[in-house]
Design brief:
Helix content: 25-40%
Number of domains: 1
Distance between the termini: 18 Å
Radius of gyration: 17 Å
Shape: globular
Order of helices and strands: EHEHHEHEEEEHH
Length: 195
């Protein structure tokens, strides 16, 4: 029986991963399911470094395959910021609202509001490391809209749908998101390896 540990305490993220990789693994569990308490310091210089570090530590602790991700918002006019510091943009203990407020202040009076959400997933399976990346392009709205999602979702406007991530129904967001794309790419790599 193949078991996958998802290195997260985020129930929404775990649910999305289970929906996409459910037919690849017999059982998908989280830190909570496994009784593991792990808070990995994300001190890498890239999304990939952080994801790999989390996956390796989770695999070592659990003894089973482990999947981790790192993701963030990259705004062109800010040179890619907040980037890997997305969760800590307004400070180490910043709330989503504080991060969003800082972002809007930084972009005040700027015409170029193009941005992209990026996600890198890393899977450690024995001695093998597999990574995959996904991204979605959009722009930063002038003000927050919508009550769904988390993080920068109320500000991330998806032109194709004419709504922010926080306004989109969860099933649509989860089918087009940066994380969904990264997981789909990973699933294709895993399927090819099994053939």
């Amino acid at each position: 029986m193949e078991r996958l540990l998802v290195a997260t305490n985020n129930a929404g993220k775990a649910k999305e991963i289970k929906a996409i990789l459910g037919n690849v693994y017999d059982e998908i569990i989280t830190f909570k399911d496994a009784g593991i308490v792990l808070d990995v310091v994300e001190d890498g210089d890239s999304f990939e470094e952080n994801a790999v570090k989390k996956a390796r530590e989770a695999a070592f602790l659990s003894g089973c395959d482990a999947l981790a991700d790192d993701s963030g918002l990259c705004v062109d006019a800010l040179g890619g910021a907040p980037g890997i510091r997305s969760a800590r943009y307004a400070g180490e203990s910043a709330t989503d609202a504080q991060n969003n407020e800082k972002l809007l202040r930084e972009l005040k009076n700027m015409k170029d509001r193009s941005a992209r959400f990026v996600c890198v997933v890393a899977l450690v399976k024995g001695e093998t490391l597999t990574t995959a990346q996904g991204e979605i392009k959009g722009e930063i709205a002038q003000h927050a809209s919508g009550s769904g999602g988390f993080g920068y979702d109320p500000l991330f406007f998806v032109t194709e749908y004419g709504q922010t991530f926080a306004q989109l129904p969860a099933d649509i967001k989860n089918s087009i998101s940066h994380r969904a794309q990264a997981l789909d790419s990973l699933k294709k790599k895993l399927t090819r390896e099994r053939i």
